[in-house]
Amino acid sequence: MILGGFVAAATVTVLLVMPTTSAPASAEWTTTPSGPLGPADRDFLIRVRQAGLWEMPTGEWAQTRGESRRVREVGAIIMQDHQKLDKATREVAARLGVPLPDQPNADQQRWMAQLSAESGADFDRDFANLLRAAHGKVFAVVAEVRAGTRNDEIRKFAQQAVVVVQKHMTLLESTGLVDYSQLPEPPSPSPVPPAATAVDSRRQP
């Protein structure tokens, strides 16, 4: 029952961190003092804001509902880090003219309701697995924006976000509760071109 609840909630979490395409305004490029601002840049700021809207209260709950001392410690760190990151997100968005949500969406509210009803070992398990799955997806989105953005301010902020998300993945894994078999598999490697293979083979001692 617990694992089934985790899988269902993880599916919702994955959908929440995937880029959206329904907002017409997000498809436009605009000029800012720090460079062109594109749809992926706006989506990135929105996703980081949404992450904070549920991870801040969830981190707070972990400090009182968690059974494991490590879960309580990790929850406190995640809450504090997201408070700082959320402040930075709002500041960057204000400078770039990007509107941000001010409350969790309907799916996030349902997921938070599930965790708010749990305590002890059940809470610990779902807390570690749900947040670890979500951070893995967010990490991929943030890394892609960091690699390809044309905007200097977004690039700088994405660098900060990458560090925070990677830190949180490591912290959640340190609880010893993450079920890695439930995480998405890494993408398959691209085929190596024959010419590159030949060059690499000549370099072998």
Order of helices and strands: HEEHHHHHH
Oligomer category? single chain
Strand order within the widest beta sheet: 1-2
Proportion of strand residues: under 5%
C-alpha end-to-end distance? 55 Å
Question: Spans of 5+ residues with little confidence (pLDDT < 50)?
Answer: 6-26
- Helix percentage: 55-70%
Classification by helices and strands: mainly alpha
Descriptive account of the structure:
It is a single chain. By secondary structure, this protein is an all-alpha fold. 69% of the residues lie in helices and 3% in strands. The chain contains seven helices and two strands; from the N terminus they run αββαααααα. The chain has helices at 2-17, 39-65, 69-96, 106-116, 120-148, 152-173, 194-202, and strands at residues 30-32, 35-37. Strands 1-2 form a two-stranded antiparallel ribbon. Helix 1 packs parallel to helix 5 and helix 2 (39-65) packs antiparallel against helix 3. The chain is globular and about 50 Å long. The relative contact order is 0.17. The model is unreliable at 6-26 (pLDDT under 50).
